[in-house]
Write a structure and sequence with these properties.
28% of the residues lie in helices and 32% in strands. It has 222 residues and is α/β, with parallel strands linked by helices. It is globular, with a radius of gyration of 16 Å.
Length: 222
Amino acid sequence: MVKKLLVIDLGLIDYLKAHDLQLKLVKLRSAGKIPDTLLLLEHERVITLGKRLKSIDLRLPKIPVYKIERGGEATYHGPGQLVGYTIIDLEGLGIDVWEYVRSIEEILMRTIKEFGLNGYRVKKYPGVWVNGRKIASIGLALSHWITYHGFALNVNTDLRYFKLIKPCGLSPEMMTSIQRELGKKVDLEEVKRLVTKNFKEVFEYHELIESSENMIKKYLTH
């Protein structure tokens, strides 16, 4: 059986619009109507609160705040950050959730290594670290062994917005980006290309199907 991965580039998209799309795609994946799917995108500025969060001081500026079903605590999304939402059938891959998280970390570590950055894991904090700071976060939800939500890689992210929260329960100063580590902006499109390549290689997909937002209706009307 040929393992296919559908990759959809959504560009800059509203958080709720992307969330609604994820839920629709999860149902389609569960029914076997679409292959495993990777959504790549940026969000307008938004704070999301995961299921592990006990409390938060919401004295925030005018940025939307949403309580959602993923694991983890509070995080920030905004322009310059590459978000990957993964609609993946874990049974089809033959792995459990923790193996899946480790594989996502591997994908991100391979990606940043292309920019000369050596990423590594820190126990109890899913994601990727560089030079003592966190550069990528992972937060998943699961529906009948289909994953959704995913990862956020700080590329050219404005890190000041992390000061509004305790990102993943950490001090805001613990967050970093590729731009901060290199001292210069990098091409987000190149980062997307590398993430896609590494996703295909790590999970051993045989075929990539690349799409864009204006083709989504095709998949939603299966």
